[in-house]
Structures are given as C-alpha cells and as structure tokens.
Specification:
Blueprint: E1 4-10, H1 15-26, E2 32-39, H2 45-52, E3 57-59, H3 62-68, H4 73-87, E4 92-95, H5 104-112, E5 117-121, H6 133-142, E6 148-155, E7 165-172, H7 179-213
Parallel strand pairs: 1-2, 1-4, 2-3, 4-5
Antiparallel strand pairs: 5-6, 6-7
Helix pairs in contact: 1-7, 3-4, 4-5
Length: 217
C-alpha cells in the first residue's frame, strides 16, 4: 500500500512539526510521508526544520495575495493554498501551530478531493476556542472556574476549533502553577497528542479506502 502523503501547515517555531517528522522517521507514524511544509510566515523556524529533514517547503505570502486581490484576499489566499495541496497529491493536511483560520475556499476543494484537515488546539473540546487558549485556561483556573485543561486534535470545519475530536488529552492544573509552567506542560502534551492524532487520521483514511474498494485478496 502506498504511503499516505501529508501536508503540514505552520506559522512558527515548528516544535509540533518536529514531533511529526521524528515520529514518521522512527515509525510511530506508519505508512506516511510529509510531502510539503507550508508557512504563512517567511521567518518561521519550522521551515528550517523541514529543510533540515529534506522536506520541500513553501512560504505562502498573505501580503502578496492581499495586494493582488484586496477585496477578497483571504478567500484568494486559501484557494491558492488548496490548489497547492491538491497538486501535491496529499491525502491529509495537518495544521500544526498554523495561526490563520481557514475558510471555505480552502476546505471545500479539499473536501471534494477527499482530503481531510486536522488541527491541534491547546484546549479541551468546547473550551477556549480561538487564540490564547492556554492563557485563558490559566486565568479561569485562578478564578476558580476550572481545575483542568488539555489539548485536542480535531477535524477542521468552518467553525473554529469545533470539529470532531480525534484525540483528547487532559491536563490537571496545580495550585501555584505559573503560566509559563502550564505552557511547558501543555507543549509536552501536544507533542504526544499530535503524533497520535496524525496516526489515527491515517488509519481512518485507510479504513475508508478499504470500505470503498473492499479488502485486498
């Protein structure tokens, strides 16, 4: 069976990307290869991580698209991104610290091509959607509203951080724990969750393909 082809979207340092790269190399993520890493930020260190691993990269400039299509630049940006991913014959898109909210101009073409998108979000389902989730959870703990937080890997839909979860990891918050300490614990948890989430998404793709074509004789 051919390997599943993964496109990874990033915006920053790329530690979650590195977890995926390492897991593909050591066999934790099986039957898969990363075919491209795309970033909306030219200085994202994750691009260098990809180059060091011999993975093709692409800097997708939002500024350039905005200058070309000022009235609908977000849709135009996502349309080009979707075309790139489809052109790479990807089977799965992983948002690993990707800080742009994807639009229907991205999701619809991929859905028609049978390419799911998954995302890492540092909060539990239904809690702290959007940006600054770890900081908001820490504040909520200090206010006595919660005792735990966590992270999830979920399928991406148009509603932000609201798609079906693939992996959920809970994290207790301790009294006196600083925001920096909570962030460190969360990042350690994310590296585990994203590997599990990618592998599960790949398994789901394989199961779907088997249901369509039937088991191999």
């Amino acid at each position: 069976m051919p390997k599943k082809r993964i496109s990874v979207l990033i915006s920053g340092n790329g530690t979650n990307l590195q977890a995926i790269i390492d897991a593909v190399e050591n066999g934790q993520i099986q039957d898969a290869e990363i075919v491209r890493v795309v970033s909306n930020r030219v200085k994202a260190f994750g691009l260098q991580r990809a180059r060091d691993a011999g993975i093709p990269t692409f800097y997708h400039s939002l500024k350039t698209i905005r200058e070309q299509s000022p009235e609908n630049y977000r849709e135009a940006y996502d349309k080009v991104l979707a075309e790139l991913i489809i052109g790479d014959n990807s089977n799965l898109v992983v948002c690993a610290g990707y800080m742009l909210i994807v639009t229907e101009a991205f999701l619809d073409p991929l859905a028609k091509a049978g390419i799911p998108t998954i995302n890492l979000h540092p909060a539990l389902p239904g809690a702290f959607s959007g940006i600054n989730a770890i900081q908001r959870a820490h504040q909520a703990f200090q206010e006595g509203k919660i005792t735990k937080t966590g992270c999830m890997i979920h399928y991406v839909i148009t509603e932000v951080d609201a798609g079906e979860p693939l992996v959920i990891k809970e994290l207790d918050i301790e009294q006196g724990e600083t925001l920096a300490q909570l962030e460190e614990q969360m990042h350690n948890l994310e590296w585990v969750a994203i590997v599990e989430g990618v592998q599960r998404a790949i398994q789901n793709l394989s199961e779907t393909a088997t249901q369509i074509t039937g088991p191999m004789q």
